[in-house]
Amino acid sequence: MCGIVGLHLRDATLYPQLGALLTDMLDAMCDRGPDSAGMAIYGDPTWSPAGEATVSLLDSPIPAGELADKVGAVLGVTVAGHDLDPTIVLHAPAAADAITAAVRAIAPAARIIGFGDDLTVLKGVGNPIDLANRFGLPSASGWQGVAHTRMATESAVTAEGSHPFSVGPDQCLVHNGSFSNHMSIKHQLERDGVVFDSANDTEVGARFVARQLAEGVDLEKALLMLNETFDGFYTLLVSTADSFAVVRDAISCKPAVIAETDQWVAMASVFRALANLPGVDNARIFEPEPEEVYVWHR
Known about the structure:
The protein is of the alpha+beta class. The chain is 26% helix and 30% strand. The protein has seven helices and 15 strands. It has helices at residues 18-27, 64-75, 96-106, 128-135, 182-191, 201-214, 219-229, and strands spanning 3-9, 36-42, 53-58, 80-84, 87-92, 111-116, 119-125, 144-150, 172-179, 232-239, 243-248, 257-260, 264-268, 284-286, 294-297. A seven-stranded antiparallel β-sheet has the order 7-2-8-1-13-12-14, with helices on one face. Helix 2 packs across helix 3 (96-106), helix 5 (182-191) packs across helix 6 and helix 6 packs across helix 7. It is globular and about 50 Å long. It starts with a strand and ends with a strand. Its EC number is 2.6.1.16. Pfam families: GATase_6.
């Protein structure tokens, strides 16, 4: 029993409120996943400044400021480092893959948990709202955010095991449920050269989707392919730099509700997480149908 929330803003006047709105939504999910949490924000000017790439990581043996200096020396640019314990966020006027390569060379024990031109991923163990406040989520701005509260069932309670799983550029996947055949799919992906960072079944789904996107498949088709390949029960929220998508399995036993207005699209595991959004009284509110992929684009 995990909790999912996501908010895709259509109205730019709401961008400064993204973090505050997402924090309020997350607060309603704490009872569904009290052991750890993760958040992803698209477009925050502090964590992901325009014209720079951002990399989020865990388990660095080197403090944020020192790591930023070392990465900057390798890349020949100024790198900013944010210590959002236990997450470190780096951003610089360089390609995301160049920053990640430098991090891996300098701190090979560090675990990359998010990267891209617009995306910041934050993860930690403990009460989700305590984490959100410690990270500064209420002050964040941007056009899109997702968050997840976790009640672990498939792997240990660790920051790296929390959602979202971000394994492709500007991509995130959060999951409520369980994939029953994920090990066979994982073994096939490993035979094809895919490397995994955890024992979490959700990472298998995220790697599967990221591979399809990397091969040129659009997000809707990638999620239809996931439906055809994965067994189990699940509700997924998948985001990219320009898309926000929801899909459920054929049985749809895991709760989900979507609300849509001219200003925003929001998804949550239960309605109470949507109840305080501006204009929700006039929203179109519905439960996503089994195996149907819902996609909104920026």
